[in-house]
Amino acid sequence: MKRKAALFTSDRNNVLLSQNFAGIRCNELLDPEFLLLYLESPVAQFYFDTHTTGTTIMTLSMKSLKDLPLPLLSLEEQRKVVETYKTEQNKINEELKRLETRQKDLKFEVYKAMGINKAFTILELLRIP
């Protein structure tokens, strides 16, 4: 079972956290985006799997969460890891968009070769990321 992690970046002070969530505030030694990437990693997920208790409702104690081992990297190294990941992820996303567009074009070419391209209109829906 994969646990979800999210980065909350609001400056609001009047936000309450549900009992189903654990809030972690990073100090000056830990980059929040680095922590998020680590929490999504197979190592952290395995830790959660082995430290989760319960049969019907699975829970991870705050003590277990506090005892989660973290990689010891300098803040500069953490930020470099995050930046490298973001850069590569953006490249991958752009390539995926390019491939999706090519796939649509290819299908339309096939429909044109079949002679059915005049039987329908393709509408592009606005996608909100």
Walkthrough of the structure:
The protein is mainly α. It has 2 domains: 72 residues, no CATH class; 47 residues. It has 4 helices and 2 strands; from the N terminus they run ααββαα. It has a two-stranded antiparallel ribbon with strand order 1-2.
Strand-helix topology:
Blueprint (H helix, E strand, L loop, with lengths): L31 H8 L2 H10 E2 L5 E2 L1 H5 L8 H40 L15
Antiparallel strand pairs: 1-2
Strand content: under 5%
| SSE order, one letter for each helix or strand | HHEEHH
Number of helices: 4
Q: What is the count of distinct domains?
A: 2
Q: Any idea what the radius of gyration is?
A: 22 Å
Largest sheet: 2 strands, antiparallel
Q: Judging from the principal axes of the Cα atoms, what is the shape?
A: elongated
